[in-house]
Amino acid sequence: MSSTAVRRRGAERAAWLLILPFCLLFAVFTAWPVVQSLFMSFTDTRNRDLRTPFAVEFVGLDNYVQAFSDPLFRTAAGNTAYFVLVGVPLTLLIALTAAVVLDKGINRFRAFFRLGFYTPVITSIVAIAVVWRFLLQDEYGLINTMLGWVGIDGPNWLGDPDWAMPAMILMAAWRNFGTAMIIFLAGLQAVPQSLHEAASIDGAGAVSRFWYITLPLLRPTLLFVSVTTAIGYLQFFEEPFVMTNGGPLNSTISATMYTYKQFGFGNYGFASAMSYLIFVVIAIVTALQFRLLRERS
What we know:
13 helices
């Protein structure tokens, strides 16, 4: 065996030794629990079965059928769909607008505005939810007080089933657009200025240049931001948990929150099945976004 082959084999062994601790930890604390939870979704496991895990019964797809037939889970799924279908486009629109303004419209204190827009992202969601719960109070909240200054009688934001979810969406968009804005801003700065100059010489206006030059070149960035934002919004949990506990009248309960409650009730098999339904939905939505927004040759 040549010396080169010996060195290569030694390097491979060293590499395996270095990654072995991670592989073991990943297998024990991530891969094995995932496999176990998948198996659990096909059983009738409850909290009483923790002492006798081998006494559970295999129920097949009964938990999944029960989830589809559960009216509260369907309500939670509908609330989640509402949150995603409205919240994701709103968040991306605000983020893209802020990125364009910071890229072209603001020359001074640009770093200050970036920090200000991004600060809510790194702030605890619990702290933000508590603050917004006070802002959205019916009688003494700041938002309704300001609306009263212009003669508008503000709604009971968190107490009215028709307004609770829009209030959640507004808060989520305000909190999360900072991340998308930073990514959009990086994408905008990567667009060659020569393309805009050539289009401007040919008579294209600012709107036309943005629509036909900037947006097509931002397609990979838009894909990444939309996928990550949608995945996060499909799992939204903290906002209703802290602000409304799923109310009023279950108008803000989400699929992940309902799954969490089922775990709390000890319905582990049923909750695991709902968790995998959420996973499948996330995978489908992500695949659709890749199909719609991927670069076309």
